[in-house]
Design brief:
- The protein is of the alpha+beta class.
- 27% of the residues lie in helices and 16% in strands.
- It has one domain: 2-Layer Sandwich (HIT family, subunit A), CATH 3.30.428.10.
- It contains 4 helices and 5 strands.
- Strands 1-2-3-5-4 form a 5-stranded antiparallel sheet.
- Helix 2 packs across helix 4.
Length: 175
């Protein structure tokens, strides 16, 4: 992958880590016990809410905007009720559309990575316009390498997405 034009690393000097043997059973993910789930504890934290969902802006990032969508109740992907799964699909589409409507954002990418926490969380990364080097799966890596994006701009963009969600999907800016 370092040979790809979009790689944030030069080919020379990088080595593949040795493959470690499997460890079974695997380490427990955060929130296996809902009573200790930080995501559940923060169920009223965010920039947009419905009875079922909340959207939060992730701070201290390098790309223009990262948003995180969570169900307000303790579900993972495999036990998410069908009704919420349907809402999740529509919400994901709307969030991407609203992020891409922001002038300095060219694309928005949605990721689900479920190895760190049990509570379902969907990542939405905004790729800045004109930065073709950030294409594809390297965007989260680039995010970690970039200087922090101006918080006031990201706050305004997140508010625009939240306001657009209120208009297109419903919900409110407060829990």
């Amino acid at each position: 992958m370092t040979g790809w034009e979009v790689s944030p690393f030069e080919q020379e000097g990088l080595r593949v880590s040795p493959l470690r043997p499997p460890v079974v059973p695997e380490k427990a993910r955060h929130g296996e016990d809902p009573a200790g789930c930080d995501i559940c504890r923060d169920r009223d934290k965010g920039i947009w809410f419905t009875g079922n969902w909340r959207l939060e802006r992730i701070r201290g990032v390098g790309v223009p905007l990262i948003l995180m969508l969570y169900p307000r109740e303790h579900y993972d992907m495999d036990d998410l009720p069908d009704e919420l799964a349907t809402e999740m699909g529509l919400l994901g589409t709307r969030i991407v559309r609203h992020m891409q409507a922001i002038p300095n954002i060219s694309r928005a990418h949605m990721y689900r990575i479920g190895d760190g926490a049990v509570h379902l969380h969907l990542w939405f990364f905004a790729r800045p316009e004109g930065q073709a080097q950030f294409f594809g799966s390297w965007l989260p890596v680039w995010d970690d390498l970039l200087p922090e994006y101006p918080a006031d701009v990201a706050d305004a963009d997140a508010e625009a997405v939240a306001d657009a969600l209120v208009e297109s999907f419903g919900g409110s800016r407060t829990p």
